[in-house]
Amino acid sequence: MNITRRDLLKTVGSATFLAAATPGITFASGPTEKRFVTIILRGAMDALMAVAPYADPDYARLRSRLAVAKPGEQEGALDLNGHFGLHPSLSALEPLYKNGELAILHAATTNYRGRSHFDGQNVLENGTVKPYGINSGWLNRSLSLLNVGDRRIGLSIGHAIPLMMRGETDVQTWAPSNLPTANSDFLDRLMQVYEGDPIFENALQQALKSAEMTSGVTDGMDKVRPGNIQLKLLTEAAGKILAKPNGPRVATIESGGWDTHAGQKLVLGKKLTELNDGLAALRQNLGAVWRDTVIVVVSEFGRTVAENGTRGTDHGTGGLAFVLGGAVKGGKFIGKWPGLAERHQFQGRDLAPVNDYRSLFKTVMHDHLGLSENHLEDTIFPESRDAKMFNGLIRKS
Amino acid sequence: MVSKDAFIAANRFGLGPLPLELSVIDKNPRAWLKRQIVVEQKTPPLLQNLPSVAEIMRIYVRNRQQGNRGQGNRQGNRQGGNRQGGNRQGENRGSGMSFRQQQGRDYRNSIYARTLNVLQSSQPFAERMVSFWSNHFTVSNASRKIIGPIAVAYETDTIRPHIFGNFEDMLRAAIHHPTMLLYLGNHISMGPNSSGVLNPRGGGRGRARVRGLNENLAREIMELHTLGVNGGYTQKDVTEFAKVITGWSFGGRGGGPEGPHGFRFKRWYHEPGPKTVLGHVFDGGGEDEGIDALKMMAHHPATAKFIATKLVRHFVSDKPPASAIAKIERVFNESKGNLAKVSEALIDLEEAWKSPFSKTKQPYELVLSTYRALDIGEPNKNDILKSLGELHQFPFKASSPAGWSDLSEDWLTPESLMRRIEWTRALAAKLPRSVKAEELFADTIGSVASKQTTFWVKAAPSSEEAIALILASPEFQRR
């Protein structure tokens, strides 16, 4: 019988055993072949423009200038189910939904209920119930259960490592650059200079290890323009690295500029096009491993239901998540829908956060990557028992 | 050998020593810093000839008008700055460039001038304060919410004059400036019961189409500029404060009291009636409501704590000690936000003089301190601008109104360290032979270098590699 880690953790289930067994434990099944990518949209994406509840009469009423037009009209929504439609810029997502490879969790966020981007992002990434509740990321804490030996399962794309990916477990890194690489003799000498400064020493060691794994990734890619790095460049690299046979398996990618207080139609249209192109490039570069992949796209919170006075929207609460990939049982909306009318709004202004991002994350970590419920509840998302997992979101392979 | 204190004064409080400067500083590091606290700050010569806000705004407004009339963006500024004469940074005006090309060029020229000013400065503590406060009151071109060249003008007009003045004055100047109003969208925010909303001119067409509140600036003032996110305000306070500052706008062909395209209080945008923010009622019906509210926030105890924490984080450690925060907070409160007194108190913090390496230089500081240390005259514009871009800290390109992070962990990731190393190595390869490794070593990290750094610098196979090792060493990368 082939015992998977998940079976083991499920059957054993004892906290003491798990705590003792966790560090460095090796499993017969080896590291996971599943891929998981989180794309963080910083600035609070407007969920109601990305996925428009066009059939809801309150939608056009509350958003006279910002409502996406109905399907069939000029620049109309791409219909999904007769009630919701995608923003027309998200054309690459439409076939995925129809083919059952995209699920949508609308009216969702973390348990954070303030409206600060920075605190909201901190909660989204640290996985506890409050801002700065812990200084590691929930995804990094999960990696300690997935890494085997020296193999680094985590991959952070971009020059900074998002908090979600920070913590005790080393991760692979990649960022676009035009600078010439330094020769290895110089780096060897520099490593001697860094002895005694653990932060520099460790960062250089990590960088050198990452460089081995990611060499050749930029071949054939667009030239890097440091002032204007498009999401597509990052997702292309992520796809190539994740597709490698012995490479990392769990990646984070960040995208900024989603805070649309004014002139939202134009600004968000451009951002959604960038997201669309980025996701298409990711799928293409993952190639055959797409079938083992789950991609989650999230933002710290959503925005007000009604538009503000400057053709934009202000900080709100309920946002949304896209869940896509060959391993997703999609073609559907998951979770509940609160409606848009004033009486359904959170604090009389925001899309109500009736769904919890942590439900989604826990489902993916459990059903896709095989982490145990105990780990998820105790160390990865503490105090999250109310956020129940979704059934039937991940394909059983 | 110079003292550790000279190293700290030059690097932590300054922006890195010029050649041979450490021994001058060493005579009395604290006095050297305090001499730079001059209340009356003049605009440095290199910044005096940059396009003014009015000039930049005029180009911007004309471009938009032409765009609106369907004339496209080309020739955005046919007559633009001609009346200013030819010997300015933006001298090629009217040469048929598109608006975008023109603003890109002006942006690069202004950033170059700003950088050169700091590179040559003999007041590096004052310059560090300019960049600290400029970051505190961030305006950013990253999402193209503002037009690039205006950022330096904004800093010169609102931040620089007040670095050793009063916090309240700096706060008012920054928020009042067209750049900030544009960046955070307040210039078009209108009270729901303002006359502009209730009785729109032209039947709601044209510009009057946009009407209603935008709470963005109000929230960021409270969260990022004054009270801090835990400063005790509610969503209601944010909304009410947003109403208080409705009408804070700019422009119009005629302009306001501050000249064409300067600040203008648009009475017909302003929400009438009393508004309550943090328990204070504002009901004057004019621009003074906003000024009074900013004053209240500038002197709020939560602001003193928030600012003190940020300053101590910048000058002492990523984990600011409570004792140091308490001292700065007290001085801020007692002096009513007198930034000369606060700056003196920072210099007097014993916590700031303990460890010379507790902070990591941000890429901007790294580039500046590198060029300050090298005795090579004025660096080329493209070298400077490319360096800042490759190291991910091009001025006024922060990704959010929170500005650049002040934490090492955000700047010392494996990828960003590798970029720093690659940058120093490539720079060392193209330096003139006149740069000598031994001199650079003595002029920068010689007095504080570890045994292994000293050993490997001396053992380097070439002067070029020795220079690269110095610049890439933790002693040079930290402050």
Structure characteristics:
heterodimer, A: 397 residues, alpha/beta, Alkaline Phosphatase, subunit A, 2 domains, 9-stranded mixed β-sheet, 13 helices, 13% strand, globular, disordered N terminus, B: 479 residues, mainly alpha, 3 domains, two-stranded antiparallel sheet, 4 strands
Task: Lay out the secondary structure.
The complex is a heterodimer of chains A (397) and B (479).
Chain A: H1 5-12, H2 15-21, E1 35-41, H3 47-50, E2 51-52, H4 57-62, E3 78-79, E4 85-86, H5 93-98, E5 102-109, H6 117-126, H7 138-143, E6 154-157, E7 172-174, H8 184-194, H9 198-214, H10 231-243, E8 250-255, H11 264-286, E9 293-299, E10 319-324, E11 332-334, E12 355-356, H12 357-368, H13 373-380
Parallel strand pairs in A: 1-8, 1-9, 5-11, 5-12, 6-7, 6-8
Antiparallel strand pairs in A: 2-4, 3-4, 5-10, 9-10
Helix pairs in contact in A: 10-11
Chain B: H1 4-13, H2 21-26, H3 29-34, H4 45-48, H5 53-68, H6 99-120, H7 124-136, H8 150-159, H9 167-176, H10 178-183, H11 195-198, H12 216-225, H13 235-244, E1 248-250, E2 263-265, E3 275-277, E4 280-282, H14 287-298, H15 301-315, H16 322-334, H17 339-347, H18 363-373, H19 381-390, H20 408-411, H21 414-429, H22 437-443, H23 451-458, H24 463-472, H25 474-477
Antiparallel strand pairs in B: 1-2, 3-4
Helix pairs in contact in B: 6-8, 6-18, 8-9, 9-14, 12-13, 15-16, 16-17, 21-24, 23-24
